[in-house]
Specification:
Layout (H helix, E strand, L loop, with lengths): L20 H14 L5 H22 L24
């Protein structure tokens, strides 16, 4: 089985988001499509949001799961129980 790629250290807290090529690629794509719609300050906020989302995704991927692991939450619908309608 192939080994997963090493973690992207530039997306960690304290990492420099300007060094993260994935963030820069997303920024280039967005600026190409919507570049005239946001100010420089707004683009800075977009970069921060992308970086935070990548950090959150990395945290989720870091949780080791096996095939048989149950979900952390369960769905409980509201309303009357079946047959008590």
């Amino acid at each position: 089985m192939a080994q997963p790629p090493p973690p992207d250290r530039t997306s960690e807290p304290g990492g420099d988001p300007a060094l993260d090529p994935a963030v820069e690629g997303q920024m280039l794509t967005l600026k190409g499509r919507f570049g005239d719609r946001l100010s420089d300050a707004e683009w800075d906020k977009v970069r921060v949001a992308i970086t935070e989302q990548r950090q959150a995704a990395a945290a989720v991927r870091a949780v080791p799961l096996r095939n048989g692991d149950e979900p952390a939450t369960t769905f409980v619908p509201f309303g009357p129980a079946p047959g008590n309608g």
